[in-house]
Write a structure and sequence with these properties.
Two copies of one chain form a homodimer.
Chain A (H helix, E strand, L loop, with lengths): L1 E7 L12 H11 L3 E8 L3 H14 L2 E5 L10 H9 L3 E3 L1 H13 L13 E3 L3 E3 L8 E8 L7 E8 L3 H19 L4 E10 L3 H12 L5 E8 L2 E10 L2 H19 L3 E3 L5 H11 L4 E5 L5 H7 L8 E6 L3 H8 L3 H7 L4 H15 L3 E7 L17 E7 L4 E7 L4 H19 L2
Helix pairs in contact in A: 1-5, 2-3, 6-7, 8-13
Chain lengths: ~425, ~425
């Protein structure tokens, strides 16, 4: 079975807004074994929407609409679907009553327009929307044609707001769809690696995953991170799980400690988890990243147990006053240097009483450094990691613009901490 | 004239990747007076792509394809467009030669497959792609039909990578398109406001902007920010500019100092600009936001002149050691309190020697505070802003999850600084 998703709404034909529901719907449909073959984005225009619906019914088995179920004149999905299916709409008394109750609860009169939210495709099942006023409609029907075979079509009308669409789809549509589709048991795993080129990961893992044509392997390259997704669908869950686990195990053996996460955790999660396991605390002294490393760590709930905080030593003076870096060290070597990175990491560790101190100092650009740093290239970054017994310093050359240099510097810092905890 | 954008690529029918070129193309087309009526996303499948192309040619005047111009078997846009237009492809010798040169420069033999990148729609203009191997094709043609009028259609094939598509479109396609369209002069302005509900902005501004039906007004609500975009198209630029400026001036008078930016600058930009105008420096002591405020400020190139840095005082001990907050103050009132916010702002200002000190302390959740903070609600945030002469403290109650509370806290902090500099 193939599906088409129609996103209705003129705002998605402006430069400012994009359909995002289809990503969620695609994942849920793929899990059911349904491929999405087309996505159409169309404005609040009855002729356009009806034409899009007609085309979709001709080329897909399952047609999902998102949006256009509100009470305004611009909400035309119900009408367009009915026209394309050549069926009528009936006004549902139960929905009307629920609408009236919603308005009564808010003590405002219901505008007459809102009654159209009770219009239902004849034959459709109404699925209650707990988070909004427009219910979902689910129609499993047969289209008869004079010159061809009769065709089964499933038409689903979903509200546009993601907070309404997602629970409705997951809780009510998925059970209906899976009852209509061949039984299917899915197993999934995910491995993540930091700072390795996609081509390297593919060169080393493809000889393995190609031996598992029944497991769908997807390589996703993000910023400083590669994800490997594995998915297997089998007639039994045990069988699917066994195949995915076997493949994952072989990839883990090949990539070894390059893999930081085997169940979808982020690099920040893993660093905090490993600090926790060893009962260690961390503090940071950030120069060119200006707080980004600390921000990434503190975005994780519960991080305060292992991350104490630190200093943003953007000016040279603060490198001395907050992390005790000798002023003459900065003057001699420049703030972006191996000795300053070392002193920053050791200093922030001592000043905060943390088990580990991490430092980042670099030239993020677009303008070059000054004084002793004037001749150093944009993208030069030094990391320092100090413990009670030793300090490690790493020199990096990061390509790209200011945003990329800053993000990759924090990614390298997290990876340096993670590897030190192995 | 209406346009349809067809994004070709199976990866955009997965849960992981999305078409983004269409946002850029839509803005550029709107500026030319062309509305986008449909967007279609289709996989690397000749039948699907040809059908999408045929449908688009029937319902739009301008059909833009992005993607599918590479050298692989999956790159089928040229073939599909030719089939839908019922024309042939010719192999262009100049493109073939350029391809051969690219490979020779890299000292690798050209795989035979790559020659298909030289296939051009008969009659199309070839637009050179400086950033990749696939040129753009621009075809201005007339479709004849036996049962209706002949119709002018413009078909544009664009490479998928945004770094290739954008310069090609801006530099070469826009001049061709604007030569084919009625002359049009555009004026644009943008006003931004922080921390005001969209409904308030609309209630106060709509009585004004509704008097300017010839100016297109768009209200965009982002996280803690409202943008008002104004666009006017007139037969002369002076006329368009005058209308937009008149409307913008009246909205500025109505919203007064709620407007932080009148030419598209971000709140961070404006804070740094105002610090610069008054020759002031800033330092930050962040608790619950964990570096997010500093990160937002230091993301702006040149920020080091006015932002010195500061401390991430995530643990109570660091509030004392880095910002001199008396330990008994934290013990008595709790870290999330008016006196601690005040002492943090004053302390970070003194310790860093900055003109202004900003502090943020709050409960970002999802778990509640401890000790004296145990009974305080999640979302409670105190800001402190200290100058040489006085300290202002603000109590906030921010709704939402950890991410929203942290972001809005930094948004309030930036707005507090901005207003203090007015």
């Amino acid at each position: 079975m193939i599906a088409e998703i129609i996103a209705a709404g003129s705002e998605m034909l402006t430069p400012h807004r994009q359909d995002t529901n289809s990503l969620y719907l695609t994942e849920a449909l793929n899990d059911l074994g349904v491929q999405v073959a087309f996505k159409t984005i169309v404005g609040d225009n009855l002729a356009h929407l009806t034409s899009a619906a007609t085309i979709a019914l001709a080329r897909a088995d399952i047609v999902l609409f998102s949006g256009g179920l509100g009470p305004t004149e611009d909400d035309l999905t119900r009408e367009a679907a009915a026209l394309a299916l050549n069926i009528t709409l009936r006004r549902d008394p139960a929905i009307l009553e629920a609408l009236a109750k919603r308005f009564a609860a808010r003590q405002i009169p219901m505008p007459p327009n809102n009654a159209k939210q009770a219009d239902v495709l004849t034959g459709a099942t109404v699925l209650d929307n707990k988070n909004g006023s427009a219910p979902c409609q689910y129609l499993d029907t047969t289209l008869f044609s004079s010159d061809g075979p009769s065709l089964r079509k499933i038409v689903i009308l979903l509200p546009g707001p993601p907070k309404e669409l997602k629970p409705l789809f997951a809780e009510q549509v998925v059970p209906l769809l899976s009852a209509s589709l061949p039984p299917r048991f899915l197993a999934k795993r995910q491995l993540r690696m930091a700072l390795i080129p996609e081509s390297t990961v593919d060169a080393r893992t493809s000889p393995i995953y190609k031996q598992y044509p029944d497991v769908e392997t997807t390589i996703l390259a993000g910023s400083g991170e590669i994800q490997l997704h594995f998915l297997s669908a089998k007639p039994s869950l045990a069988e699917a799980q066994a195949r995915v686990d076997e493949l994952t195990g072989r990839i883990e053996a090949e990539m070894d400690d390059a893999i930081f996460s085997s169940h979808g955790e982020s690099l920040e999660d893993i660093v905090l988890l490993n600090l926790g396991i060893r009962d260690l605390t961390l503090a940071a002294a950030e120069s060119c990243t200006g707080g980004l490393l600390s921000e990434r760590l503190t975005a994780i709930p519960g991080s305060s147990r292992y991350f104490l905080g630190g200093a943003i030593v953007y000016s040279d003076a603060l490198k001395t006053s907050f992390a005790g870096v000798p002023a003459d060290l900065v003057a001699t070597w420049g703030p972006v240097s191996e000795p300053v990175a070392r002193a920053l990491a050791e200093g922030i560790r001592t000043r905060t009483g943390a088990s580990l101190g991490i430092s980042i100092t670099g030239i993020a650009g677009p303008t070059p450094g000054t004084g002793p740093d004037a001749q150093k290239p944009i993208g030069l970054v030094y990391l320092g990691l100090a413990s009670a017994t030793s300090t490690e310093v790493k020199e990096l050359h990061i390509a790209g613009d200011r945003e990329r240099i800053r993000f990759w510097a924090t990614q390298h810092a997290l990876e340096l901490i993670r590897r030190s905890l192995l």
